[in-house]
Predict the 3D structure of the following.
Amino acid sequence: MRSYVDLCLFVRFIELSEERLGTYRSDMPETEILALWQKHESTMPSYVFHELYHFWQGLRLPFVHRYANRTLRGFQATVTWLKEEGVDLIAPEPIQDQSDTHLAMMWTESVPPLMSESLQAIYGSLTPLDLLEGAASLAEFQVLHDEAARVDRRVFDRWSKRNPSYTNALAILERRLRDGGFALRMFLPLVCQAFSTSDPARSFAELVELTRQIMPTQEELSSAQPRTWTDLARHLMHELPFDSEPDADRGYCRLLPSQMFRRPGHPIAGSLAREWEQRCWPDSAESPDYGLVMEMPGWIADHVLQYCRDRFGPPFTIVRFHWVQGRKSVHIYGGENSGSTGIDEDLIVELLTTYGLLRRRTGLHYDPQTRLCHHSSCPYYEANWCNTFPFVPNDYSECTFSSYVLALTKLVRNGKDTNERS
Amino acid sequence: MVTIRFVAEDRTEDLVNFITGQMDDDALDAMALQREHARTPGLASEPVTTAVLISVTPIVARTVARLIERWLESRRQERQLTLVLDGFTESDEAGRQLANLASKYSDVSVSFGPLPSIPDTRGT
């Protein structure tokens, strides 16, 4: 049971446990349940910030944004292929076996990082997910603590033991830099730069090795402005040995924020990503802080952080309530900014359902352990085609998933895909 | 130092937070802790904590044993809890306390065996 942000669809999935909720009444109206969630969210528990930071990674880190757009394009290509070949949407054989060329580009994202042998020995097991999770954990820690504690290795060590956290990538950085305080200052700036390339794990390794050559003294560490470390990481990016032009479709290259402006944009996060990026342009009247939120969330002015929370929060959240006595219920909530996506409640349900089916069908961006339904007695539970279908009834015999599938299958056969409809 | 590896299905993280949340800073500083996460494909989901290894002194191990028992008593839904102890002998008080959990709770299993050591990052 773990909350997460889907880094392809950019929908937030929250698991809200009974300890945080109190008692559920069977006659509780939807508005009251929504109020429970809103009240809980407004207190910004640290795990909610952790997920918010993941959502921001989708808005601000070019690799993540490109990954999401490419995955969605892969799904669109799958629909086209199913239609042309007359293949059913739901079928037992994985679609990879059909060797569809449209999907080939997708799988390049999961190729192991191409590092030199010496770097492979140190960083070989490191994945982009390790870096994203490590960054979200450290960001969570730094916004919760005062300035001195944010870079105090001992305080972080205690916090990471007492709270759910991911520390293996930070531990590697610390071993390489041989200084916990320096590692805490450099980790977020390095991760953000690494995700401005087509191969984050490789770039992180190369950036860390470059950082090792610039070891500051303890006095420099304590007296330098926090911005120093962000500027250092940005400077080091210019020394990476890219072999392709920026934003190239293939090869090791730098990814620019222009990723966020490519068309077609991401249906849920595209407009928000562009809006945030425009706030960071040199001629923007906005504070330069907006361009530093990901690297230095603990040092950003409160009003900027608050604005980002309000304006750039996830437009759609699925909350699964775990009530006392084992009862569960699933609800979809639109944030205040959901209107800016142009996606209404009907369309988000259709998107989620189609998305779950396609990732199950293709194996792309699919974790078999991920599901919203808790009815393990349902004969279709194991197959998990409904992994993101948000209408989970009290009794699985009342489930409407099959009617959605039927409608979607007709859409595919009739040559219309959800994109055309939207 | 002794090492305990525990797995409590989908409540493993809950258990480790319960234990570490009850310990004072000094005890926590003296403890090495390592989480094991499920590997998920690509960026598809947030990795879940599947197991936790803690390395503590025998005295702190007794506190850990008491905290595990309190967690078992307070939980609302049963989960299978598996403990593997390394560095203990059955004659140790902490080892005995932990081994007794298996006889008291039917969903707890305890075994003794070698475990991989945890890289010690304390005090860095």
Summary: The radius of gyration of chain B is 14 Å. The interface with chain A takes residues 10, 13, 16-17, 20-21, 25, 28-29, 31, 33, 35, 37-38, 40-49, 76-77, 119, 121-124 of chain B (CB under 8 Å). The mean pLDDT of chain B is 88.
